[in-house]
Amino acid sequence: MFDRISRFLQEIGDDSSHKDQKPDDARVAVVALCYQVMEADGIVSESEQRRLKDLLEEKYSLHGSKLDELIAAGETAGNEAVDFYRFTSDVKRHLDEEQRVRLIGLLWDIAYADGKRNEMEDNVVWRISELIGVSGRERVLERQAARERAQMDDEGDTGDAGNQ
């Protein structure tokens, strides 16, 4: 799962500039949308935060303050926004159709990171999907795939708990 998401994140941010993140940067938009999903149920769990951080760390080879800057930029942008349009318009401008579908998969992975998803997360992913032009069919297929990945991760975690 991390390889798939890492490839996606790499494709949207192939510039070498990682400091001074701008609000219209596709990476900031993706992080902001991830936070929208994480906050949908009223609880941003540690497992959701860790999953997001792991994905960004792996893709961008960012650690410490540089990683924190990207996450903070996305979180701040998300907190300042009154709707999803600001981010979804950046996503539509910078990502092709396949990348937008994979973004929905990433959002579902974030939704399942705490071991469960709820109707508020469903609603946020549905709204984002609509705004970026991802069909209902693709959204459902990505949700099913994310659920399967989460189940496999859960099964793997029980046997590899000491390896993390």
Automatic annotation (TrEMBL):
List residues of the Co-chaperone DjlA N-terminal domain: 28-140
> Which InterPro entries is this protein grouped with?
DjlA_N, TerB-like
Spell out the Gene3D superfamilies in the cross-references.
TerB-like (1.10.3680.10)
Compositional bias annotation for Basic and acidic residues: 143-152
Pfam families for the chain:
TerB
Superkingdom of origin organism: Bacteria
Q: Where is this region: Disordered?
A: 143-164
Q: What is this protein called?
A: Putative tellurite resistance protein B-like protein
